[in-house]
Amino acid sequence: MTEPLDTNKSDLTHTATATVAAWLDCLGCKPVETEVPCGDGWVADAASFWVPTMTEAKRSRLLDSIVPRDGRSKDTERFAQMSRQVGGRLTIAVEIKVSRADFLRDNGRKYGVYPKQATMTRPAHIVILAAPPGVWL
């Protein structure tokens, strides 16, 4: 994937963004876009939507996080309920951080120690924080 040149981004940031875009593409996310305004001040480094199969939803533990087990419902019923709740598509926003300082600048505002402490609204069903190996967050 070729990303538009952005003069304020390092080579490491461009490499990390390309890696995230390739991972989202392999997951089945189409299209994958970079530098996506998501509202409330968020600009996701990469974003897309995903229509998971039941196997993918189970493997990624989406069923348990979106539709908790009640002991009676079968997985097919829970999958149908999850699909209705999210309109069939799950939105994904990825924030890429290549340094601890970059992460700390956004920490309280976007993430908080716990999601409920963040001062900004989550811009997607799934928000992923990605960092290259060796970056301690």
Describe this structure in words.
The longest helix has 17 residues, at 11-27. It contains five helices and four strands; from the N terminus they run H-E-E-H-H-H-E-H-E. It starts with 10 loop residues before the first helix and ends in a 7-residue tail after the last strand. It has a four-stranded mixed beta sheet, covered by helices on one side. The model has no long low-confidence stretch (mean pLDDT 79). It is 38% helix and 20% strand. It is α+β, with helices and mostly antiparallel strands and 137 residues long.
In short, what is this structure?
By secondary structure, this protein is α+β, with helices and mostly antiparallel strands. The protein is built from 5 helices and 4 strands; from the N terminus they run αββαααβαβ. A hairpin with a 2-residue loop joins β1 and β2.
